[in-house]
Amino acid sequence: MSIRKNATFLDWQSQPRNHKIYPHFNQRFKIDDYEELKDLNLIGGITYEKKYPDGVYHLRSVPSAGGLYPCEVYIQIRGIKGLLDGIYHYEPHIASLTLLQEIANDGVEHYFKENSKQKGLVFLISSIYFRSSWKYRDRSIRYILLDSGHQLGSIYAGLCVMDRESEFVFDFDKIALNLACGFRDDEMFTCAIRSSQKVDKEIKKLRQDLVYVSGCDYLESNEFIEEAYKSSAIFEEDDFKSPEFFSEIPKEQLKRAILNRRSIRAFREQKMSNEEFEFIVKDIFNFASSHNIDIYYTCHQVEDKTMGLYKNEELLKEGDFRSKSRYLSLEQNIGGGSGVTFYFTSNEVDKYQKVNILSGFIAQTIYIKSEIVGIGCSGIGAYYDDECKEFLNTKNNILYLLAIGR
Length: 406
Prior knowledge:
Blueprint (H helix, E strand, L loop, with lengths): L1 H4 L22 E3 L15 E7 L2 E6 L10 E8 L7 E6 L4 E7 L14 E12 L1 H7 L3 H22 L5 E3 L4 H7 L6 E13 L23 H10 L7 E2 L9 H10 L13 H8 L2 H7 L3 E6 L8 E4 L2 E5 L3 H7 L4 H4 L3 E7 L5 H21 L3 E5 L4 H8 L4 E9 L1
Antiparallel strand pairs: 1-6, 2-3, 4-5, 4-7, 5-6, 7-9, 8-9, 8-10, 11-12, 11-14, 12-13, 14-16, 15-16
Helix pairs in contact: 2-3, 3-6, 3-11, 6-11, 7-11
């Protein structure tokens, strides 16, 4: 009812800028000039341009709810040949790293639970929420976390192509690091991923705060989102090594899939094979369950697989649920025209940020694996929460829907 009563007209000419630009005097380094980082643009670079009468629209290697791209990526670099040790901002539109501050015995490690010097790359993902709330209002608290998960998945996939191991970090002092990096309440760190070697040396806090630069050309503050972030930012969580979702996929094949990935707009409603489905979901359910995420799905059109409602790998109820999935997906045809529609859920409250971000991460993995076998994929962030719970017969929060198919 809130969707139907509060439909608002959007003037797309008023959309805030969707990429952050630091001042011209900051030194910039072209990524292609550094052999050790030659595939770094896979983490979120421009992969396609659409030209319209009023301008050019850039698609990236990472999807975003509504194409609004609230995420920014910062990279602390130590020990990369030709680059100063420092904190950099990734600028996808010019495929460059912008140096924000040199570091020595100070760095972002100080704000992590284990304060040990990290030689290599430390990626920090932030969200500038107004890029999303400009369109989605309060519901953007969901989207900025899911988008952070997609960005996490994009960095993870890029590191796999670069043949670099990685580690996920959710438990760090985000509030203090926000301040140290010059953020105000409009931008906030959500998660991190390290690809580095630990050195037995403690690191001091950043010797000076970074300069504030707005991530948009204007801002309409949203107190609900700011408070929701602050109240869920701190929780206890061990760092953990990234899964091996792409370990058996040749690096060049994975790279092509990252570059060619797109969000499908409609399905032809043709069946996918059971082999394709099993390839896409391999190890997904076990990984999700280990982090208290239950994945339900409705199977609509998969050869040699019973139509019905599943929880992880268990068939709960046989039946044709295409029309139900369509309705639950905010009455979008893509929810029912798919081969399979996934429902990511969790009863986690204290780690609300983590399970939402990991849902986006898992979805990004499914996106890429679907592309490898020629299957379409699209995230669905808008749905009827209470009706989904009733249909799935769960008290879990509904975090995300994702559709795959031909």
